Structure formats: C-alpha cells, structure tokens
Amino acid sequence: MTFLESKTELCSLLDIDYTDIANNQLISDAELGYWINSAAIRAWDFRAWDFSEGEDATNLTSATEKFTYPDTFVAGSVWLLMIAGLGEYDKKDYQSFRKFKINYPTATDKIYSEYKNYIYLNTAAHAVGLAITLLGKLKFTKLVNTTDKLPFSPVSDDLEYSGNRAIVKLAYAEALASRKYSETDRAATEEAAAFNILKILWEPFAEARANSQSKDRPFFDVPDYFGPGSPNIGQFGND
Predict the structure, then answer these.
(1) CA distances (Å), 204 to each of 39, 150, 151, 201, 208, in order?
(2) Would you say residue 230 lies in a domain?
(3) What is the pLDDT of residue 157?
(4) DSSP letters along 115-176, please?
(5) 199 and 173 assigned to the same domain
(6) Coil, helix or strand for 103?
(7) pLDDT (tens digit, 9 = 90+) per residue, 62-87?
(8) pLDDT band at 214, cuts 50/70/90?
(9) Which domain holds residue 174?
(10) How many degrees, rounded to 5, is the angle at CA 177 between CA 175 and CA 179?
(11) CA–CA separation, 50 vs 211, rounded Å?
(12) Has residue 236 been placed in a domain?
C-alpha cells in the first residue's frame, strides 16, 4: 500500500472523495497525510517488527568508552554489537556495566551497555580503528511522496501485511477524535480494532523469533561478573 492509496482508503472511511479533496471544505490533503503518518509511527513503534530493524557500521575512531547512538536508530534498541576480529559483544544493563568497570578496570570481557542516547564499550577489550557493526530498531521515516510505501509493505506496495489496514484504521480513529468530527466513542472503537489487528499480526513474528532464539543468548540478561577476562575471585577448590 502506498501513501496515496492509504489516504484514498481513509477518505473512503470518512465518506470523502479523494479525487476532489482540493475542494473539500472540511478536510485537507495535508490533514489526511498527518493522520496517516501519525498512525504509521504508532504502528511502527508498537512492536519490534522484523522489517523495522536495520544495520549501522562505523569505525572505532578513539579509545573513548562511549559514543552517540546512530541517528537512524531508536535509543536503547541495539540488540547486537560486533567488532571486527573480535566477534559479538554481550549486552549488559548499565548498572551492571558500571559496577564491572569499577571493580575490574583492566578486564578484557567483550561487553557493552546503553544509557540514554549513548552506547558504552569495555575499551580494554579492543583497539582503536576496528570496524563496529550495530543491529537495532530504525526510527520511522515520514511518508511524503505519493508512492512512498507504508511500513507493512517492506518490499513492494502490492506485497503487504495486514498492519497497513491497521494504520488506516488508526488514522480513521484520529480523524474521528479530532475537533472536525468529535466522535470519541467511535474513535475508541476503531483504535481498539486497529491495535487488535497489530496484536494478531505480531503473534507469528513473536513465535518465529522465539523459535530462532539462540541457545547461548538467554532471554534474561544475567551479568557475568567473573567471565573469561575477569579475576577468579571467590573460586573454591574441590580438595
């Protein structure tokens, strides 16, 4: 589904002729676009859809522990970080990362963390100049041109998920709730129906993700304070 097609569908729900939108005294084309974009970003942010993820690659240009999140990424969304020649780094919560760095400043454990709009690396584990690759959730790109594809048409406008219909419904709900219509009850009903579509659509995504979950990548992040590069403090013998 394209931006133009979504606005045309929205007009159909509002009982408006999009081909004559320039002469409509109640709704403008700009308002239609605003409602569609507002609905699209809500649907995009609702779940970590596979097609909403992306890659960012750069080089470690300094020995600084932290660097700014890629502009195109949602803060806190990086789930995989790899450094050339060293492989994958383990993600830790920020509090555990800071505690580890204080207790073991020279340990070479390959770990990273996130806080606000920054990514923190254990600089003792690598050298400057190495290539770094990040995988995470991309920010939504605003729909502008008539041929721009809605998020749930990641390949082509004719190959789509039901999420595009949910976007139109969410846009319809926003229009109904606006001062142009003030039909808040109907708006709430349409919004609930839209999110129900998204919830149903997410089920196979979630199932596939669970089935492909790596055995050595646990769902719950349990900090390993005594990893391969850490001192063997508190180790008891069997003798």
Answers:
(1) 22, 20, 17, 7, 6
(2) no
(3) 82
(4) ETTEEEE-GGG--TT-EEEEEEEBPPPPP-STTPBPTT-SSBTTB--THHHHHHHHHHHHHH
(5) yes
(6) helix
(7) 777 888 888 999 988 999 999 988 99
(8) low
(9) 3-49+151-211
(10) 85
(11) 14
(12) no
Provide the token pair at 110.
């390959």
Contacts of 136 (CB under 8 A, 6+ apart): 53, 54, 56, 70, 73, 74, 77, 78, 79, 80
3-state secondary structure 23-36: HCCCCCHHHHHHHH
Checking if the pLDDT of 160 tops 50, the result is yes
pLDDT 10s digits, 215-235:
445 444 444 434 444 443 333
Based on the domain organization, do 178 and 60 belong to the same domain? no
Residue showing tokens 């990548």:
217
Residue type at 166 in one-letter notation: A
Two structure tokens written together for 162: 């039901």
β-sheet with 111-115: strand ranges across: 53-59, 131-137, 80-83, 87-91, 111-115, 118-121, 66-68
Phi then psi dihedrals of residue 45, to 5 deg: -80, -15
